[in-house]
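User: Run a structure prediction on this.
Assistant: Running it now.
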Amino acid sequence: MLQSTTAVVLLQELFLGPATAAGGAQGGALQASYSWFVSGWGSRASWFFCLVAIVVLGLLSRAIHTGLAIFDKYGGDALYAAMIYVILRSRWRASAAAVYAMVAMTALEFFQLTMIPLHMLASEHLIVRTCARLLGTTFSFVDLFTYAVGIGGIYLADRMYVQR
């Protein structure tokens, strides 16, 4: 329980700020949730809720199979890239977050060419095999395109909302 509580506090500090996570001057998580409704899309709390929604949709894209690769595989990949954008966007402006998210996703995809994740998949340890699945084991240019679509889509939604 202590470890999960620590993880929650770290996430709160990242997205809501240190005073909120400590229950300080801003009044805790309830106040931060309320401030999201007041301040809108640009607040850290709104990015946290966006991150949660992306993770849930990503998990559903892997759990529910439609038979169409565009939804079953590539939808999850686009959401994975959007998740990286959201994490970076909580601290940086939109254009920097988009560029760095694409750099990170490209580096991750090219890392698959080393065959290290593929060898990790053959490990006897569950945690190593799980990491291999999270990293991906096969390089694909289509994945790079899918990452760009995911990052581009959330970047455009971010920019459109800010311009309103």
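The CA atoms of residues 56 and 79 lie 10 Å apart.
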